[in-house]
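Service request form, structural biology core

Requester: graduate student, group of Dr. S.
Request type: structure prediction, single chain
Budget code: on file
Notes: please return the result as structure tokens.

Sequence provided:
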Amino acid sequence: MEKRSVEVEIFGHRYTLKSEFPEAQVKRVADYVDGKMREVAKGSTSVDSLHLAILTALNIAQDYLQEKGGQEELLQRIKDKAERLEEFIALKMG
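Core staff response, request fulfilled:
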């Protein structure tokens, strides 16, 4: 897939990103990061952009790990129910 340039703005800075993903998706990701940075900045006394970027990255990583854990739990529940269903079917079929 060919990479194309996409202009985005994150925390008041413009960036030109090269990506093979659709422009709308790249902008959605940039908007998410921008929103997270602004959220972190509200709760922080630091004005250092690097410090805010690291705190934002930590927040995003925490969100990701929580979501991933939830998905793994859901997948395990589905597997457990599928096994019980297989056992039930096996019993009914003799």
